[in-house]
Design goal:
There is one protein chain. This protein folds into 2 domains: 4-24 and 37-137, no CATH class; 161-265, Methane Monooxygenase Hydroxylase, Chain G, domain 1 (Up-down Bundle). 65% of the residues lie in helices and 0% in strands. The chain contains 10 helices and no strands. α6 (140-160) runs antiparallel to α10 and α8 (171-196) packs antiparallel against α9 (200-222).
């Protein structure tokens, strides 16, 4: 667990991010009512895959808030267990994910499942997580990616807020670290988008680029070894999260290759 000034800054950053995440800027009483069905649906093009779902901007905002809370839940559990053996799989179990939930085949299978994409709202008007339409926001790999990169960004913010840190760490060094981290996040999100489109080999390429960017980030991180105090904790906590992100890349790349071989053997 984080301690000292870095720990306090990190907890403050988490509290602020939670406040922003749960902030409701739209008064539900004055917001548009949720539109459950449209008999015309999306009659043309690829939108047919969404079935009868027809949501307005407010509906999608509520959806993103619910998905954001899932990312926050994973991040909170991860923060508790991140220094335990097999913590990534342990947290996944606590999230209720089964091994098959991580499969890249879910990106295609769920999208083709009318039960998963219907976005049906209960008869009582409830809009639970189970009734949400399937998008990549729901996939465990996306949730893990957003949570861990979010925590790494908060760690950098917390380190920068430590009094006097600019006297011990040149801003250029932190800028290089943040740049490599941003590249890694971008490549992982592009890989997930490729999976959502069913392009497994394109996903593998983006995961490889993400893996390289993660390695670059770790190099910059270890470059802070000559800085003691808060930077030591920053390196420890950052290293754990970067190793886990690299593990996610390797697992999903292996899954992508297997899925691509399966599709090659059985094109139907």
């Amino acid at each position: 667990m984080l301690t000292g000034r870095l720990g306090r800054r990190f907890e403050e950053s988490i509290a602020i991010s939670k406040e922003i995440l749960t902030l409701e800027t739209i008064d539900e009483r004055s917001a548009p009512q949720m539109s459950q069905y449209n008999p015309e649906g999306f009659p043309e093009g690829d939108w047919d895959e969404r079935g009868d779902l027809s949501w307005n901007e407010f509906d999608w905002r509520q959806f993103l808030l619910r998905r954001g809370k899932e990312v926050e839940r994973f991040a909170s559990l991860y923060q508790i267990h991140c220094h335990e053996p097999d913590h990534l799989d342990h947290v996944a179990q606590q999230m209720g994910w089964q091994a098959e939930d991580w499969s890249v085949a879910d990106f295609e299978g769920e999208a083709d499942d009318p039960e998963a994409t219907s976005g049906v709202i209960g008869e009582d008007g409830s809009d639970s997580l189970d009734s949400d339409p399937y998008t990549l926001h729901r996939h465990p790999v996306f949730i893990v990616t957003r949570a861990l990169f979010g925590q790494l960004e908060l760690l950098i913010e917390a380190l920068c807020a430590v009094p006097g840190i600019h006297l011990r760490v040149r801003p250029k060094r932190l800028w290089a670290l943040a740049g490599a981290l941003s590249s890694a996040e971008r490549e992982m999100l592009l890989a997930l988008q490729s999976l959502d489109m069913g392009d497994f080999m394109l996903a593998v390429l983006h995961f490889k680029l993400a893996h390289q960017a993660i390695s670059d980030t770790m190099t910059h991180l270890e470059g802070l070894a000559d800085v003691s105090g808060a930077a030591d904790e920053f390196r420890l906590e950052g290293r754990v999260r970067l190793f886990d992100l690299r593990e996610v890349c390797l697992r999903v790349m292996s899954d992508c290759r297997e899925e691509d071989r399966r599709n090659f053997r059985d094109p139907d």
